[in-house]
Amino acid sequence: MSLARGRIKRVRFAGLRTAASIELELEGLTVLIGPNGVGKSTLVEGFELLRRVMASDDLVRTLHEDHGGPTSLIAHDDHELKLGIDVETDEESFSYGMVFGRVDGGFGIAHESLRGADIVFLRTGNSVAVATNPPQTLPFPRPREPFLHQSFMLAPMGPVGALLEGIEVHGPFTTNAAWLQRGSSAERSTRSDNVVQATSRVTRGGTNLPNAFHALRNRDDWQDTLETIRLVVDEDIRDVTTPASASGGSIGLAVKYRTGTVPAFALSDGTLSLLSLVAISTLDGGQPPRSLLVLDEPDLHLHPAAIRYVVALLERCAKRYPVVVATHSDQLLDCLSDPARSTVLCDLDEHRHLRLRRPDAAQLAKWLPEYRGVGQLRAEGYDSLVFPPPVRAAGSS
Length: 397
Hints:
By secondary structure, the protein is of the alpha+beta class. Helices cover about 30% and strands about 25% of the residues. The protein has helices at about 40-50, 60-65, 70-75, 145-150, 160-165, 180, 210-215, 220-230, 270-280, 305-315, 330-335, 340, 360-365, 375-380, 385, and strands spanning about 5-15, 20-25, 30-35, 80-90, 95-105, 105-115, 120-125, 125-130, 165-170, 195, 235-240, 250, 255, 260-265, 290-295, 325, 345-350, 355. It has a 7-stranded antiparallel beta sheet with strand order 2-1-4-5-6-7-8. Strands 9-15-16-3-17-18 form a 6-stranded mixed beta sheet. Helix 9 (about 270-280) packs parallel to helix 10 (about 305-315). The longest helix is centred in the C-terminal third of the chain and has 14 residues, at about 270-280.
């Protein structure tokens, strides 16, 4: 089935811990900032929940096993978790939503909906109402599986399913040296050898970095990628190789400098993180192609001087699809080319509910010439000068 291209325009979360009612517009690069405990990581997890709509045959089980179930996910003063997404394709717009709550005495999919010009699909508990143009017969939804996952090969559900499937969420890279991993549950890291296999994406944590670079080295644009590595990581780098392991069947990662070759186990955490970011920004194809990139604290382990190159990488990606970053780095904020459009301040209202505040562009233009960037302005305590109180939008899925 050929799917119409599209893009994710907006996400909606409600009842998700502090995110009692949140709508976030996605365009270009979005940088989430704010103090600890307000909900930045909650939003990152919300994006992962949206991705898992298409990644799990039993989404309810996944929410329990990987996300702690309703006790962990749903705010204590709420009874339902709502996820929503608005997308635009070449042909039309769609709005998709899902509600998790009490179903037949347990926790499950209480409601699901998809609305577009040629479809209205509503699922409440075990009852379904659907109207499509042209008319078509749809299978009855399975109770623990999103209907979108079950039926995404049916038009017009395919484009929405493909965009959800194309969401990619990364936390901090697993760069610990072997001696730090002794006795821990972490078995693999960016330093680990890989069994050779084809890949079109960097896995979470960067644990398939050798395979990722093996794929990049076999592309026609490898020399361009190598130039990016020299710019972002170290100008003395001559090559990045994937040598075969002595036991056979696996490959590792090594960086060739002007003065010699350094294997992955001896590289710094920062070098491995930067190599992972270059690989992520370059390997964004696959099927379906990436529709949204989410990074939680990509600046960890990085020298402040390297952050401006990372921002340049992310802004380049953001010309092809939305990119969302959660960070505490003032240096990262200072490097944004369009801070008025990219920056979103996260804080809590009087009810301890998350709110999102974008800068006032006119006020930011007035104050920014006196500072390196919005990061320095925030660091010196002048958030209130440029971040007006938000106009709260009612969110519903």
